[in-house]
Fold this protein.
Amino acid sequence: MHISVLGPLTVDAGHIRPRDRVILAALTVRRGAIVSADELAEACWGDDQPGTWWQQVKTAVARIRAVLGQDSIRTEGQGYAFGLDAGVLDAEQFERMVAAGREHAIRGDHDRAADALRRSLTLWRGAAFPEVADWPPARIEASRLAEIKTSAEEELLDARLERGESASVIAEAQRLVREEPLRESRWAILALANYRGQRQGEALAVLREARTRLADTLGIEPGERLTRLESAILRQDPAITRATIAAPGSDQCPYLGLRTFDAESADRFFGREDEIATLLSRARRGEVLAVVGPSGSGKSSLLLAGVVPALRDTGSTTEQLVLQSGVAAHAERLAAG
């Protein structure tokens, strides 16, 4: 199952009525925390609640359960809570991908950082939680996610710059500057992209324009990142000329050939984050999820080095038991569980 909230709410399990989408969106904002019936009514109707709001909320919850399953919404006293694993939400997947991209960047692996950040941004189809845009908790959460998205856009360009893509980064950095001209990091990216593209004059002009814009709009001087960059450009500092910073070398080969990746090699397993996210979103307690494909297509690696570690990273307390063909040692434990 997959629920998209980074844009108009959609689910891949069936049709959700407009009113029910509001209720479901409000519950996903809280990610499993209890939302009182009063709060759900406020999310739906604001201060103009009908006399039958209580029954309408109950009916909406029942219809959602009919589409997503009885466990999709838990009844908690006088309120409700989103009952599915947060991994079914594209917002949760977005934050995980951004975190992965940042970890790769810290390690100097800018190829993988750019890949993860780029894929995270493709999940966005519009503003988050538009069905409950006027509900204060949704406004706060949507704003938080939007800020992460804004930073991810900048970090993606940083990673691409470190890969040596200065020429292609310039146009994208110009767009980001036009969208939010008071974010100094965007001016810095644009200036550095110009400088690394052998356009020192344009780079300095970008920094002058940033200084003027900040002074005219906010009455402030540029921050440390812009001032240090300007000084480095004027000195033609070799440290900012480098197109890429090599990751520390390792004697360990990242490729296993025909061998299967497992939990011990999970840190070297990458490139299948979309499939991992899909499997996590569709895995539900008490149900069987089958992964099928031709021999050698990577099913075992996807499970052992992708899905199982991801389940552990989510804090799942469910025991993971892997059965392999020809191995009967775990049969009794499986039957007992």
About this structure: Residues 136-162 form the longest helix (27 residues). Residues 244-249 have pLDDT under 50 and may be disordered. The longest strand covers residues 73-76.
